[in-house]
Amino acid sequence: MLLSIDGFPLRYQPTTIDVIAPPFTEHPLGGGQLVVVESQGGVTVNANYENMQIEMILTELLQRRANVGIHTITFEDVQFRKLVSLNVYMPRLSSNSTGYDADGCRIAYTAFTVAFKEIIPALLPSRLEFIAIGSGTTWKMKAPAAGKVVGLSGFSPSPGAATVQIHNQTSGINYLSVTGTFGGDGLLTGFTVIPNMTYIKDDELRLVIAGASGNNAQVTVHGWQFRP
Amino acid sequence: MGIIRTYIEEMIYFHVWGALGVGDGKAKVKMPYSGEILAYGGYVSVLGGGNTTIQLRNSTVSPDKDYFASAPSCLNASATGLLEGGLLIDSPTFNADDVVELDIDATTGTTLQIWALCGMFKAATI
Questions:
Q1: A100-108 contacts: CB < 8 A, separation 24 or more?
Q2: β-pairing, A111-118 with A192-193?
Q3: A55-104 pLDDT per residue, tens
Q4: Which pick of A40, A41, B13, B112 has the fewest CB atoms within 10 Å?
């Protein structure tokens, strides 16, 4: 199973791990069919310990500062038989049963659950870098994952009258309603990104520079992308 | 104080400018964090009538580790200039500060960009 926190395998491994999906709602239609809508939000990973003392686990978790801030846990997904990493925070522990040990007068937790709550969705910031050589040039890139364009930046050491457009050759759409130009300081300026414009994995994205741009240029498309 | 790691995904780029030549270490990147290669791609500006075949190699580990079991190419037959084919090894991982190099195994082209989408553990000290 090999549950690890921040890349360090825990000394005391859980007995079982359950991945709990966010709740869903059901909407019955007039004809008796059922529409099931999945809720937003991350999963909860329950690490279940049996026949262990809670102090053993807590000591190690606190050493890893699991109760503070955001951490990464890695565990083996039984269904897909691969390692899964998630960004999580750890709420308080819950216990399933309590009792007294042989010495008496001391509560021993024999089964308890450490719940790790995923807090960061599968959207991650992305930078797609395009380079251009000379004027009237095009640079191509296949999108590494599905995503959305939210911004643009660029620089040319020899600004000129060139215009910059980001084009999706696969779907035939442009991402800028107003093309950009390189100002006197060489920075890309004057462009307008069309809101909520997306692409899917393997879409062919192109940087299209029209007109005289002089020498080389670099344009970075900033966006959000889903995990591939 | 302690180190907390967050999982991120970043594009790592390898650029080679001008007329391309066959050889190792045409571009190098020192990886900022430990992680693995999740996806890859690339583009050659001018194909030049032949294929451009590349390899990514970790030159820090001993022996050197190639990340492609089957090397990808920008194919002259496709004429798109985009990187095609190739197969990553089973465990394309690297450690922080490992140097990954771009090797060109065959080419007739000009100006090349290879990108690797990497999942990495970003470390922050609190």
A1: A108/A53
A2: unpaired
A3: 778 788 888 877 777 788 888 876 656 777 777 888 766 555 555 656 66
A4: A40
pTM of the model: 0.67
User: Does residue B108 contact residue B49 with C-beta atoms inside 8 Å?
Assistant: yes
A80 Cβ contact list (under 8 Å, min separation 6): none
**In chain A, what residues touch B2 (CB-CB under 8 Å)?**
64-65
pLDDT tens column, A139-198: 999 998 888 898 999 988 777 778 889 999 999 999 999 999 888 888 899 999 999 888
Closest partner residue to A87 among B6, B34, B41, by Cβ? B6
Neighbours of A63 (CB within 10 A): 12
First to last CA, chain A: 24
- Helix, coil or strand: residue A172: coil
pLDDT digits (tens, 9 = 90+) for B66-105: 999 999 999 999 989 999 999 999 889 999 899 999 999 9
Cα first-last separation, chain B:
5
Kindly report the average pLDDT of chain B as a whole number.
90
A86 neighbourhood in chain B, CB within 8 Å = 7
CB contact under 8 Å between B115 and A129, yes or no, is: yes
Token digits for B44? 């050659």
Contact, B17 vs B26, CB < 8 A? no
> By C-alpha distance, which of B61, B69, B126, B56 is closest to B96?
B61
How far is the CA of B98 from the CAs of B55, B64, B65, in angstroms?
16, 11, 11
